[in-house]
């Protein structure tokens, strides 16, 4: 089984990528682009899957970090893909992901400082 810090890094990197995908587009352009929609949704699915695998111990120590809601979104998106509300995906990508990324980075720095320090390093 993977370690918690790896799931946290997956979530941070996916949030950063999804935020980058929508950086220079407005909601109309997002709604018109299957490519951007698909890319953002895929990153949200990664976040949801990883969130569901973080240990109960970490979730208990960090109750303010979204877990269940992210996992629930992932399950809904996977099982009802053709009914995805793209306006919700847009709002998540343009507002919620920045905050999530900040929360997860704070968590990673507190729980796994060595891993957090490596996250800022170029690959």
From TrEMBL:
Q: Which Gene3D superfamilies match?
A: bsu32300-like (1.20.120.580)
Question: What Gene Ontology cellular component terms go with this record?
Answer: toxin-antitoxin complex
Q: Which residue ranges traverse the bilayer?
A: none
Q: Which Pfam families match?
A: HepT-like
A GO MF term:
nucleotide binding
Q: Does the keyword Hydrolase apply?
A: yes
Q: Which UniProt keywords apply?
A: Hydrolase, Nuclease, Nucleotide-binding, Phosphoprotein, Toxin-antitoxin system
Q: Which domain of life is it from?
A: Bacteria
The family assignment reads: Belongs to the HepT RNase toxin family.
Q: What is this protein's record name?
A: DUF86 domain-containing protein
Source species of the chain: Frankia torreyi
